[in-house]
Amino acid sequence: MKEYKTIEIVTENNVKTVWLNRPEIHNAFNEEMIGELKEFFEESVNDSDTRLIMLRGRGKSFCAGADINWMKSVVDYSFEKNYQEGLQLSKCLHAIYSCPIPTIAVVHGAAIGGANGLLAACDFAYATDETTFALSEVKIGIVPACISPYILKRVGEYKAREIMLTGKRFKGKEAEKYNLINGSFSESELETEIENVINLIFTSGPKAVRKCKELINHVSNDIDLNEAIEYTAKVIAEVRKSDEGQEGMNAFLQKRKPNWINE
Predict the structure, then answer these.
(1) Is the pTM of this model over 0.70?
(2) What is the pLDDT of residues 59-116, one digit of tens each?
(3) How many CB atoms neighbour CB 132 within 10 A?
(4) Strand-strand pairing, 15-20 and 7-12
């Protein structure tokens, strides 16, 4: 497996954990980290063995947003240089969002600025109650531009207005209220909840889960309701006739476990 400089990949039992690995600066991201995350998630398209990807942060925080040293250089960038770096971040977030493998962000400590785009682009996001969240870009005279599509998808327009226009700080339970995350838990409860989600995914048909992600992405982003009529009918017909679909339906009718459950 490729070695990265700013992230670490750990594989265990068909689960890959992507660790943001700059703990000395609370995993603040720079151009290099964005590029490495983009590369990893783009390459996951060809990964047929992994059932789940987790995104986590080493040390005291999930991610403190942009690296201050990187920001110092950004101040002097030309429009074109700023555009190219913004485009890289947009492509990184889209690679996470469109990843064919289910993704879970596990958040602790702090998720500041662009860090919220990383977690919002994942399928699931869970945090500790004491995690501090903030979309604080407006506080320094900029805007959460590249992350906005994923924040808006998660929280909706008017909740997004509240947290993006004010730049307010809030904790895990409030982040759950905004729907920025799926749930907020004590530190001891968080790992149990993550295990529960993993178990639910692992007892589902592996190909069906990936097909379901593809279905959600396509219906949500690419077609209108009229187009969905024919598209969804074709999807269910294909899946029912697939080997996994046949096995799953027969297992249900015969009151046995399907062959992807090894218990």
Answers:
(1) yes
(2) 999 999 988 888 888 888 899 999 999 999 999 999 999 999 999 999 999 999 999 9
(3) 18
(4) antiparallel
> Is the CB of residue 112 less than 8 Å from the CB of residue 132?
yes
Place of tokens 């295990």: 195
Output phi, psi for 174, to 5 deg: -70, -35
Task: Give the total residue count for the chain.
Answer: 263
Which contiguous run of DSSP H or E holds residue 104? strand 103-107
Q: Look up residue 181 and give its DSSP letter.
A: S
What would the pLDDT profile of 191-208 be if each residue is shown by its tens digit?
A: 999 999 999 999 999 999
Owner of token pair 């062959």:
259
Distance in angstroms (rounded) separating the CA atoms of residues 212 and 17? 22
Q: What fold characterizes domain 7-201?
A: 2-enoyl-CoA Hydratase; Chain A, domain 1 (3.90.226)
- Cite the DSSP H helix spans in the chain: 31-43, 68-74, 79-97, 115-120, 148-155, 157-166, 172-177, 187-202, 206-221, 225-241, 243-253
Give the span between the Cα atoms of 196 and 213, in whole angstroms: 19
Per-domain residue ranges of the chain: 7-201, 205-253
Read off the DSSP letter of residue 167: -
Per DSSP, the three-state class of 251 is helix
- In the numeric block, which tokens belong to residue 61? 């925080």
